[in-house]
Every structure is written in C-alpha cells, then in structure tokens.
Amino acid sequence: MVKVYEINGVTPVVHPTAYVHPSAVLIGDVIVGPRCYIGPLAALRGDFGRLILEEGANLQDTCVMHGFPGADTVVERDGHIGHGAVLHGCRIGRNALVGMNSVVMDNAVIGADSIVAAMSFVRAGMEVPPRSLVVGTPAKVARELRDDEIKWKTEGTGQYQELAVRSMNTMREVEALTAVEPDRKRVEWESSLPLHLHKNAQA
Prior knowledge:
Elements: E1 3-5, E2 13-14, E3 19-20, E4 25-32, E5 37-38, E6 43-53, E7 58-59, E8 64-66, E9 72-75, E10 80-81, E11 86-88, E12 91-92, E13 97-98, E14 103-104, E15 109-110, E16 115-116, E17 121-122, E18 127-128, E19 132-135, E20 140-144, H1 147-170
C-alpha cells in the first residue's frame, strides 16, 4: 500500500490513473493528477504548502517536494522531474524537465518546454523563459532549446506515462531468483525502442 498520511484533517488526493510506488510517502495537501508517475522513495510533504502534479507529470525516485506555508509547489502538465531532484515552493512549467539531483528553490519559475541540467541549483525567485536550457550552480540560462531537443524530452516523458500504466498492470512484489535464467528476457513494452542518448540528456 502507498504510504499516505492525513495531517490537520487534509488528505492527499491521487487520481485513479496515476501510479504511486508503494515506498513513496504522501503527506497532507498533495494532489496527484491523471496519468502521473511517482517513483520509489519519493517524498511529497504537503504538511506546510500545497503540492500539485498536473496530468502526465512524473516525479522520479528519491525526489522531494515541499514548500513554505501558504505556498504552492507545482509541476505542470507533462513535467518531468529526474532522479533525486528537490522542488521547494517553485513552479515547473508545462513539458519542462528538471534533471537529476537538481534543486529548484522557492518562487522560481521554470518556463514551458525548458530543461534544467542535472546537478543545477536554481536560486529562489529565478524566472526562466520558455524553451531555455538552464545549467550550473547557481543556474544560468545557457541558450534557447532546439525543436529536436524538446522533441527528445517529450518522448522521454511519454515513456514515463507508459511506465505508470505498465507499473499498475504488471508490477508486483515477489521473491528474488537465486540464479539467472537461461535466455533471460529483457523488459519490453510497446514503445521500448531505446531513446537515442541526446547530448543534453539529464534525466
């Protein structure tokens, strides 16, 4: 069972088409929209501010969402939050990507179709224009993204939307095997052709 906790009379909301891994923790004012994916060990602490994931967004393993009292932390539709990222009181725009182990601070706004590179630190109050590549600590806008880079990001998010469905339909807790089977099969699904590794791949 997913670890869901009410606090001060406020209970998390998870849409029936969203997948939340059983090891994730949802506390209080958390709203997970349709077709979202929440990965293992993610922590969504809506014990101060409201946390919102809009339709098709993903929040991957060990990510943290939190915010100050009265603030909203929002991942807009098709937002993509890579492994280990921290979002605190910020807004991630539609179809934007936050790379692995990045931190996005309070009142920062990441514009639609943008990419925050892995290990970046987006300072409080920073406003990133749409279609931007954001890099560094502290993060700076490096340049505008090309159409093929946005397409690569969108395809990757589509695979996480499929992962939500695959997880609901096929993931189950089992005992580990003690040896590798002959002709061990690989994980395959409808669109399992590998995404080509893009030079800006961050999540």
